[in-house]
Design brief:
138 residues; two-stranded antiparallel sheet; 3 helices
Length: 138
């Protein structure tokens, strides 16, 4: 038979181990930030596979990646890389600068593609309405 005091002792022990695990995870993230690496805050996301385009997957929590300079959090690694290049360019290493340039060019291509598709959609809509007006107004 388990007494109340034994149950409380067991709960206190599990709470203490959870606290130690959380502090170890935070210390590991701080060590990675001191080493100049962009590391996920949630260690479980560090083992997730890379996406097809080569970028890492985001952390499972709301604060997936943290800037080592200002501490701002980002849900995806590519957003952290872009932030570092725009807000802290003097703080970047050579590797981080190369990652920023590659990510900036990739985002630039995506924006250009979006603009072309948006323009195409507007042209189709414009001429569609123009033809409808010409047909129904006559």
């Amino acid at each position: 038979m388990v007494t109340v005091s034994e149950t409380n002792h067991t709960n206190e022990a599990s709470d203490a181990s959870e606290t130690r695990e959380a502090s170890n995870t935070a210390a590991d993230a701080d060590d990675a930030a001191d080493a100049g690496e962009f590391r996920p805050i949630d260690d479980t996301s560090a083992t997730e596979p890379a996406l097809a385009d080569g970028s890492e997957t985001g952390g499972s929590g709301p604060n997936g990646y943290r800037c080592r300079v200002c501490g701002r959090s980002f849900p995806a690694a590519h957003l952290l890389v872009l932030h570092g290049g725009v807000r802290h360019p003097s703080e970047l290493t050579e590797r981080e600068s190369a990652e920023f340039r590659a990510e900036y060019e990739r985002e630039e291509r995506q924006i250009r593609s979006f603009r072309i598709r948006a323009l195409g959609t507007l042209v189709v809509l414009y001429f569609g309405f123009l033809f409808m007006y010409a047909i129904y107004a006559s």
